């Protein structure tokens, strides 16, 4: 199974340690196409070292989205990039899990929460200590469909 993980990069890297833990858990379900999102070395400036630039990153990531079997997005840290990816995912009708931590003090965008559809697009409020169980429930439900 190919898993696409979404997390904030240029929108802020406050949750990078959590992203690392999520990516680590996602590896138990398949190949994570976007492991770099969980790397502490990736700063809020993103992949500035990419000689090909922003167009390359966009096209590569959209290609990875198309290749993926499932998408998991940590949506607590507001991010234009993650929002864009999720818009594309909804259009592609990819099985998607959005993870949001209400304890952060943020309010999740209505465009994300309102897109929830039990068949394709699931939004789950969670706490960090529930993350592994929430992922397990989601991936178990995929096996039933």
Note the beta-strand portion. 15-25%
Helical content, roughly?
A: 25-40%
Strand numbers in spatial order across the main sheet: 2-1-3-4-5
Mean pLDDT: 92
Please report the total strand number as a whole number: 5
- List the uncertain runs: none
- Judged by helices, strands and strand pairing, the structural class is alpha/beta
Number of helices: 5
Globally, the shape reads globular
| Cα separation of the termini | 14 Å
The profile of the biggest β sheet is: 5 strands, parallel
Using only C-alpha atoms, the radius of gyration works out to 14 Å
Order of helices and strands: EHEHEHEHEH
Structure report:
The chain has 145 residues and is of the alpha/beta class. It contains five helices and five strands, in the order E-H-E-H-E-H-E-H-E-H. The protein has helices spanning 16-26, 53-67, 80-92, 110-113, 131-144, and strands at residues 2-6, 31-32, 70-74, 95-100, 121-125. A five-stranded parallel sheet has the order 2-1-3-4-5, with helices on both faces. The longest helix has 15 residues, at 53-67. The chain is globular and about 45 Å long. The mean pLDDT is 92.
